[in-house]
Design brief:
DNA-binding, elongated, 6 helices, homodimer, Multidrug-efflux Transporter Regulator, Chain: A, Domain 2, 3% strand
Chain lengths: 134, 134
DNA sequence: CTAGTCCTTCCAGTCATGGGAAGGTCAAGA
DNA sequence: TCTTGACCTTCCCATGACTGGAAGGACTAG
């Protein structure tokens, strides 16, 4: 299978697939013409990576997940540990974003949003202690 | 004031302050020795930027916020509009993260996390349709 | 005078791509 | 056979918002 078809099947852009080869996440064969030739295992791996990326795993985490996937003697505890670390990262980011949202929302709420220059949002950004988003 | 002190006061790393000058967010004067000399207005701006960045505004949004802050004839509606766009971005990101969190959590929950290789997390990543995080 | 701490610029790297140029390959139709 | 046009290749540069580090100048305390 050539790269464009693989891109359609896996949902990943061709550029991204080439990049994944460059960083050795996948190692497709080459045809006599120099074209990449993707086997079913490559396509499998790319779909796997696409889903893992969709869940927010970093490339390096994907690499470890793939290694665990390939290792038939793995302990599921190792996979779970990896996932739990990532879950905590996600939870942390959500918390940060919610704090930002709350702080900004209170400023926006206080702003008249009319033609006058007085603006609690700008005041909040200008004054120390007026914005907290921890 | 020299850069290190400004860094302490504003809470921004010196490197970042230099970067902000490079992209013309700020324009500190220079002393005879070539050192940057920060006036109170620079320090004010840097603190403003630090707070805006803390609320998740991009550099370009910070630039627009600063311009509005400087413009004494601004309409607060313009500031509010900027903030509301950003609020929507934040809300979108939170939604995406929560979808990821939910999908990953259900996989993690199904995983025994013991010494055996069987792993619903890997199965979920490998099988089409098993993971949804939209 | 020297040691140590500042300051400067410049270059390169991060992460995960995306854009686009220059050029080779292949399949279909005139 | 020739020519399109769609595909493929590599290569280099750009993104955002920094961060690290090297090389070298400036200043302060002892």
């Amino acid at each position: 299978m050539n790269i464009k078809e693989v891109a359609e099947v896996s949902g990943l852009p061709a550029k991204t697939i080439r990049y994944y080869e460059e960083i050795r996440l996948i190692c497709p064969l080459r045809g006599a013409n120099g074209y990449r030739v993707f086997g079913t295992s490559d396509i499998h791996k790319l779909s796997f990576i696409a889903r893992a990326r969709g869940l927010g795993f970093s490339i390096e985490e994907c690499r470890r997940l793939l290694a665990l996937y390939d290792d038939k003697k793995r302990a599921s505890a190792d996979v779970k540990a990896l996932a739990e670390v990532h879950l905590r990262d996600i939870a942390t980011k959500i918390k940060e974003l919610r704090a930002m949202e709350a702080a900004l929302q209170s400023l926006v709420h206080a702003c008249a949003g009319d033609a006058r220059p007085d603006c609690p949002i700008l005041m909040g950004l200008a004054k120390p202690g007026a914005v907290c988003c921890d």
